[in-house]
Write a structure and sequence with these properties.
This protein is of the alpha+beta class. The chain is built from twelve helices and 13 strands. A hairpin with a 4-residue loop joins strand 1 and strand 2. The radius of gyration is 25 Å and the shape is globular.
């Protein structure tokens, strides 16, 4: 084969690879992040069998195996791990391009996609920030969607959300963080409980008593910060099915078990069932934060961020840590 012919073969092969479908890479990203075809298909809004077919098509086109499949689970192969970060960047860029296209279609009207924790509508700092932004930027459509912190953070990283109100601590790689509120906790003790008559609760008082808490896998960071010290002190954990205030409150009420309570929620949660007890020798705190993706901004994102700063938000590196702080 002559040199020109060989060059033609190489050019043809390059053209073939350069035509790799963007959708295939987006499908791969979803499966790689979920490690489940069922969850990825639900996230993408497509049929699971079609998604499996498209992943096999991608593996055929790349001449490599991206997932190691068993009857119970799937895992990324080394080839899949090598592809993931690049495909994530593509997913973010695609989301940004689609958003720009929607803005053009809407006649230039901007949209701000904001994530928030369930029930955080009652967080006065969050409400003030959004209310002022909406009042001062009526040309921007604000769309708020709810979910747990880790899910919201993933959506910010993927470009599916512009900003989100979440709980600290968490892995902050690729994320900018403003602290907007510091919450402090007390213990709710059911009436008739052995600890009812204590004026304050020491960690040493808790050994052997049942404390309602979320499953650690729902948010390992918050669990380690707020709940692991109680387990270390000897409490008996009772895992609630959801990392939601109402779910945990119902379980504590029905079983007359101990539970943590934000000081701002005491009046709503006590009623005639619980007595609030301060902690002795320890302060237990948690932060609510506003986050955005590093390296990506729009006028609307910048405006909301600046609004949060004007209303008292602080970069997280300027804030003291949260969780258990033992008094000296």
């Amino acid at each position: 084969m002559g040199q020109a012919a060989r060059a033609g073969v190489v050019d043809a092969e390059f053209d073939k690879r350069s035509q790799l479908s963007v959708d295939l890479l987006l499908f791969f990203t979803a499966v790689a992040e979920e490690l489940s075809f069922t969850k990825a298909a639900r996230r993408l809004g497509i049929d699971q069998s079609w998604l499996s077919h498209k992943i096999r098509q991608l593996e055929t086109e790349l001449s490599c195996t991206l997932f190691a499949r068993t009857t119970r689970r799937i895992e990324l192969t080394s080839a899949g791990e090598s592809l993931l970060e690049s495909s994530r960047r593509l997913a973010r860029a695609t989301a940004d391009a689609r958003r720009a296209a929607w803005a053009v279609s809407a006649g230039g009207q901007d949209e701000l996609r904001v994530g928030a924790l369930p029930y955080s509508f009652y967080n006065p700092e969050r409400v003030k920030i959004l209310d002022r932004f909406i009042a001062e930027h009526s040309e921007t459509v604000v769309d708020v969607s709810n979910g747990p912190s880790l899910q919201l953070l993933d959506r910010v990283r993927l470009g599916e959300l512009d900003l989100a109100f979440v709980s600290w601590p968490f892995e902050a790689a690729g994320i900018e963080v403003l602290s907007i509120r510091l919450d402090e906790f007390c213990m709710l003790v059911p009436r008739g409980h052995p600890l009812e008559d204590l004026p304050e609760v020491r960690m040493s008082d808790l050994a052997g008593h049942v404390l309602v808490m979320p499953n650690a896998r729902l948010n390992p960071w918050t669990f380690k910060s707020l709940y692991q010290p109680f387990i270390d002190a000897g409490v008996v954990p009772a895992m609630a099915p959801e990392f939601q205030r109402d779910s945990m409150d119902r379980l504590a009420r029905s079983q007359r078990w101990l539970s943590l309570c934000n000081l701002m929620d005491v009046s709503q949660r006590c009623g005639d069932v619980f007595l609030p007890k301060p902690f002795a020798g320890v302060t237990i705190t948690n932060r609510k934060c506003l986050v955005r993706r590093k390296g990506y901004t729009t006028p609307a994102i910048t405006a909301l961020w600046e609004t949060a700063l004007e209303l008292g938000g602080q970069p997280i590196e300027q804030c003291e840590d949260v969780g258990f702080v033992m008094e000296v």
